[in-house]
Amino acid sequence: MNVRRLISTAAATTATVLGATALTACSGGATASPKNTEKFDVVASFYPMAFLAEQIGGKNVSVTTLVEPGQEPHDLEITARQTAALAETDAILYLKGLQPAVDEAVTQTEGPEKIDAATLTELEEHGAEVDGGEHADEHGGEHADEHEGHDHGHSHAAGAQDPHVWLDPDKYAEVAEGVSKAFQKADPDHAADYRANTEDLVNRLDALDKKFEDGLKDRKTDVFLTNHSAFGYLAEAYGLIEESITGLDPESEPSGARVKELQHIAEEDGVTTVFYETLVSDSTAKTLAEDTGLRTDVLDPLEGVTDKSRGDDYFQVMESNLAALRKALGAK
Predict the structure, then answer these.
(1) Is residue 237 within a helix (H) or strand (E), and if so which, with residue range?
(2) Using CA atoms in the order 54, 165, 112, 66, what is the torsion angle rounded to 10 degrees?
(3) Which residues pair with 162 in a beta bridge?
(4) What are 277's strand-pairing partners?
(5) DSSP states along 90-119
(6) 321, 330 in Cβ contact below 8 A?
């Protein structure tokens, strides 16, 4: 795994202070602290990156998040002043392909180390439909063979690089290990702490992976309907099939043909639930559910955690997602 040359320890502790105005703008209104000269300062692009930085860095890092609670991360806009403020931090941890405004700002920024999580695991192409048959054997999925090569009588939407890797605990662990190596190289004095924290985090992610694997066995159906294609990696990991209303873009509008297609899929595959999210409008999902006689529930893509989330952090929300999937898929 190639990690670009990171800033020296001396640079990581340079006593440069960000003004409160600049940081507030940089964080999109989120609460942020002035640059901490005693810690390794990291600006994270959105919640899953901030969670990694906090869990791996522990007491040795100071983390600022660009997206405020409740803001949909795809919608983030960064001004010229905010881009300038990024240059005052020690490292930027982001996931290229999720937030175009962040990608552009990072390209324009010189000074801090740029850690792109998309380079720390393998991205795949996903569209409006994701079949879990290809990777299910790695996790012991027993339903994959039933669906391999089976098109359900509908067309597969064109795919695009899917950035939602954090929703597969195994892939998220890969990213965590890459981020840890970057932190260790940048701040060797605390490398032992970063290694220990990462080992603990990866163990917890492995345990979560096992919970999903065990919890989704003996289910009545493999198919679940979502608002947008955030759960492609999760579907592949556990032998499921995700059918989304809008594809990878949560703000796009579905065609009438796609809605009819989903109605047919729901009837054919015994789907019970249309899932919606906490940070985007639920109107399309609820309309589809009403038209098909299905119920609705939340499946959280964890792009941000708010007081409306079913949990206070990544692990709690993922366990809530597991409970929702078990109910929707009829798992025993």
Answers:
(1) helix 232-237
(2) -70
(3) 124
(4) none
(5) SEEEE-TTT-HHHHHHHHH--SSEEEEGGG
(6) no
Checking if the pLDDT of 265 tops 80, the result is yes
- The rounded distance, in Å, linking the Cα atoms of 17 and 37 is 8
**pLDDT tens digit string along 210-262?**
999 999 999 999 999 988 789 999 999 999 999 888 755 555 566 677 778 88
Tell me how far CA of residue 270 lies from CA of 213, 224, 274, 327, in angstroms: 21, 9, 12, 13
Backbone angles phi, psi at 67, to 5 degrees: -100, 130
Among 24, 22, 70, CA closest to 46: 70
- The Cα 165–Cα 126 span in angstroms is 11
What pLDDT sits at residue 25? 33
Kindly tell me if the per-residue pLDDT of 139 is higher than 60.
no
Question: What residue type is 164 in one-letter code?
Answer: H
